[in-house]
Design goal:
Layout lengths: L17 H12 L4 E2 L3 H9 L3 E6 L6 H12 L5 E4 L2 H6 L6 E6 L5 E3 L6 H11 L4 E3 L5 H6 L4 E6 L7 H12 L7 E5 L7 H6 L9 E7 L3 E4 L8 H12 L29 H5 L14 H6 L1
Helix pairs in contact: 3-5, 7-9
Protein name: Protein disulfide-isomerase
Keywords: Isomerase
Family: Belongs to the protein disulfide isomerase family.
C-alpha cells in the first residue's frame, strides 16, 4: 500500500460495484501513473477505461511532470499514464509536453491547454471526465452525487416519446456551454425506479418532458424554468440566468383551494404565497402551520 499517514487515507470515491472497487484498489496500491514505454502500452491503457489521462513529458522528472503526478495521485477513479517515448508522442500527435484526456464518448479526446499545475489539471479533468449529458442510473449515481459539481440540471424525459432524441440533443447542445459549472443529467421519467425523483421535484409523469435545476449545498434549492420550451436556446438562457442570480427558487405548491380566501384566515400555498404575503398595500401576518384548518377555526 501507499505510504500515507492516517490523515491522508483515501475513501472509495468511485462506485460500489465490484469492478469499481477493484479499479480503486489497483489505483491506490500501484503508482499514480503507469509508465508507458511504447505506443502499444499507451494504446492498451487508452482502451482500458471509459476515461484515461496521459501525460506526455520529454523529461519525466520536470516540474510539469511532478505536477501531473500530483494530480494523478489526487484522482481515484481514472487511470493515468505518463510517457517520454517519442513513439507515443508521434502516435498521439504531440510535438511537445502536454496532457490529454481520452474518453469513449462525446469528443473522444480533450487536449489540456495552459500552465501544467495540479489545480489546473484537476479542473480540466473535472470539466471533461463526465459526458456532457449523463443518464441517472444506479451505476452513475455515485459519480453524480460524489463529484465536485453541485449544481445539477435535470431533464425528465420519457424514452417513449416520438421526439425523444431531438429533445435530448437540444439538452446536450446547451450542456456544452456549462462544462465544469453545471452537471446536465437525463432521467427516464417512464422508468419505475425514477418515480421517487419525480415526486421529490413535485412532478407527475404526464407533466414530462420537463426541466428542473437543483443546488446540492447545505440546503437543496430547486429552480424551475419560466418557459416550458425545451430548445437549446431556452435551456441555455435559463442556466445563464441562474448563474447570474436572476432566477428565484421554485417553491413546490399544493393545489390552491377554491375557497382559500373565503374565511378571515386565508389559505396560502406556493402558487399564491408571494402575491398575497408580499402585497405592498396590506400588512400581512403569516403563520406556518401543518394543520391550517384547525388554526383557522381557532
Amino acid at each position: 500500500m501507499e505510504n500515507v499517514s492516517v490523515s491522508e487515507k483515501h475513501r472509495v470515491a468511485a462506485g460500489r460495484e465490484a469492478d469499481d472497487i477493484v479499479s480503486w484498489l489497483k489505483k491506490r496500491t500501484g503508482p499514480a501513473a503507469t509508465t508507458l514505454a511504447d505506443a502499444a502500452a499507451a494504446e492498451t491503457l487508452v482502451e482500458s477505461g471509459d476515461v484515461v489521462v496521459i501525460g506526455f513529458f520529454k523529461d519525466s522528472t520536470s516540474e510539469a511532470a511532478k505536477e501531473f503526478l500530483s494530480a494523478a495521485e489526487a484522482v481515484d477513479d481514472i487511470p493515468f499514464g505518463i510517457s517520454s517515448s517519442a513513439d507515443v508522442f508521434t502516435k498521439y500527435q504531440l510535438s511537445g509536453d502536454g496532457v490529454v484526456l481520452f474518453k469513449k464518448f462525446d469528443e473522444g479526446r480533450n487536449n489540456f491547454e495552459g500552465d501544467i499545475t495540479k489545480d489546473n489539471l484537476l479542473n480540466f479533468i473535472k470539466s471533461n471526465a463526465l459526458p456532457l449529458v449523463i443518464e441517472f442510473t444506479e451505476q452513475t449515481a455515485p459519480k453524480i452525487f460524489g463529484g465536485e459539481i453541485k449544481t445539477h440540471i435535470l431533464l425528465f424525459l420519457p424514452k417513449s416519446v416520438s421526439d425523444y432524441q431531438g429533445k435530448l440533443d437540444n439538452f446536450k447542445t446547451a450542456a456544452g456551454n456549462f462544462k465544469g459549472k453545471i452537471l446536465f443529467i437525463f432521467i427516464d421519467s417512464d422508468h419505475s425506479d425514477n418515480q421517487r425523483i419525480l415526486e421529490f421535484f413535485g412532478l407527475k409523469k404526464e407533466e414530462c418532458p420537463a426541466v428542473r435545476l437543483i443546488t446540492l449545498e447545505e440546503e437543496m434549492t430547486k429552480y424551475k424554468p419560466e418557459s416550458a420550451e425545451l430548445t437549446a436556446d431556452k435551456i441555455t438562457e435559463f442556466c445563464n440566468k441562474f448563474l447570474e442570480g436572476k432566477i428565484k427558487p421554485h417553491l413546490m405548491s399544493q393545489d390552491l383551494p377554491e375557497d382559500w380566501d373565503k374565511l378571515p384566515v386565508k389559505v396560502l400555498v406556493g402558487k399564491n404565497f408571494e402575491e398575497v404575503a408580499f402585497d405592498e398595500n396590506k400588512n400581512v401576518f403569516v403563520e406556518f402551520c401543518k394543520c391550517l384548518s384547525r388554526a383557522g377555526s381557532q
